[in-house]
């Protein structure tokens, strides 16, 4: 099993969460504040670095380093939703270079396989050049917190203390992971069953790097398959909504995004639910994240035939 997958499985068990919050907001400061707010309730925090204004590229104390430090404090993984899709050589530059230097702070990235399997090999080569940073890097967390406070961004105290999470080590592996987009949640997308099977075949060739898929259902079919499935297009049923910040499951947003409930996704066998606007636009993102966590966790327990204590 990919080491990030086994760490994620531990996180899921200990944090009782299968939730990935997608930071679909447009300021770097607000993204960091959101990471603080939802950190206790999530196992993965998904970013779109290129939609953020105010990204600080400083490798030691900038936005990426601050987010990595928050992730370490709250024990969640960072997934940069970069959707690489270019030729191998360009994808390598996009992964490690520029102002974002995604490789340095994102444990997980994703890619379309439209350009063929060599692009996956290219990203893996780049991922293998990454070295685990030293403890000093993580001092950036305090820097991040005070910088946010200075700018007047509300930073809430974590509800889990460091001590409570003491038995849950930070990610112990110097590895990076890749998710392949095997299915999409948008109406009329072109990822048909043949394309999905091609993704699975490519993933099997690179199991040391590909940890799973963005897909709408589990895709493992061979006895040796241990791929995770993370699923977007997730929304609470309206009768459970705290504030109407989400879309109605079974319907689309104005631009073709299609929604399913967290309960249905977990019962279907998905590993992680991805929720963006339903949490980012909520009056209380932290409270809303905990609600999503709870309903998904209960459905997951039901799927496993377990009941909550
Ligand atoms: O098929 C997909 C793949 C992804 S990664 N459909 C998606 O919606 N996503 C991402 O999940 C999308 O880019 C967005 O960041 C998030 C869903 O956001 P929401 O507001 O609809 O929950």
UniProtKB/TrEMBL annotation:
Keyword Lyase: yes
Pathway linked to the protein: Pyrimidine metabolism; UMP biosynthesis via de novo pathway; UMP from orotate: step 2/2
GO biological process entries: 'de novo' pyrimidine nucleobase biosynthetic process; 'de novo' UMP biosynthetic process
The protein's Enzyme Commission number: 4.1.1.23
Alphabetical UniProt keywords: Decarboxylase, Lyase, Pyrimidine biosynthesis
Enzyme's top EC category: lyase
GO molecular function, one term: orotidine-5'-phosphate decarboxylase activity
PROSITE patterns found in the cross-reference section: OMPDECASE
Residues annotated for substrate binding in this entry: 24, 46, 185, 257, 276-277
Family note: Belongs to the OMP decarboxylase family.
Name of the molecule in the record: Orotidine 5'-phosphate decarboxylase
Organism encoding this protein: Lachnellula suecica
